[in-house]
């Protein structure tokens, strides 16, 4: 099969189109002919080597964390899917690689794609929708009437998180540029802050939840907009001890993570708020629930651009500019 591979960890390292062996189907795997995939900032960070401390992919490896496609084979232990099913998924860590023509995915990570979406639209959802779900539902446990601040509302995670938070009954504030304000308002944002001309920490106060996706300076400011007992969930770091425990990292790595998150945890404690780091996980059952919300019209996919498979490197470069509204999709088949 054809696939785009990373040959060495390096910032801005080029992706090379290569011939790779077709995936081996294990007992509980479904083999998917990839119709479409999507690009995430995570792909660039992994290529740059930012996560190799706890996600040590061995070059050459294939990037890509989103897939929509058709099942063409199943392992003998598979019970939920059959050949011909149209599915979408975020393959689990250490088994990613959707910048390719085929991928084998554990059936536990897979769900039938939303009926109302095209393959391109479905491919845009798994990673960002699971991130929003796990941050707002699993970790923050957002309740009706709460106030939620979602940073970068026009980005991939932001566009889904705004919709989900509104569905959960929250009042939603977000940051974006003035030109993207109509987009985030159409998704349900109640308070829109132009990050180029306004300081959100001077506008917002008494918030129950913050979904942080920006730099350490923004994180520090975000802690201060929370009310006592509020919860900041960060998807951009720093990792916390709970994350290290979940990954069952060795003692040295646990110590490193404890040290790099010490400052933010100390600040959160002094303000009487909670800090959590989220590195989303694959979950096919959650994708089933998300598909249900999509088909009911509660959630919609936001796609900025669709690139042909041959332009996968250009798609990754475009995402790295930070200008994408919603998701960037790659049409594979």
From TrEMBL:
Gene3D superfamilies: Medium-chain alcohol dehydrogenases, catalytic domain, NAD(P)-binding Rossmann-like Domain. InterPro entries: ADH-like_N (IPR013154), ER (IPR020843), GroES-like_sf (IPR011032), NAD(P)-bd_dom_sf (IPR036291), YIM1/Zinc_Alcohol_DH_Fams (IPR050700). Residues 10-330 form the Enoyl reductase (ER) domain. SMART domains: PKS_ER. The lineage of its organism: Bacteria, Pseudomonadati, Pseudomonadota, Alphaproteobacteria, Hyphomicrobiales. It comes from Rhizobium quercicola. PANTHER family: ALCOHOL DEHYDROGENASE RELATED, RETICULON-4-INTERACTING PROTEIN 1, MITOCHONDRIAL. Pfam families: ADH_N (PF08240), ADH_zinc_N_2 (PF13602). GO terms for molecular function: oxidoreductase activity. This is NADP-dependent oxidoreductase.
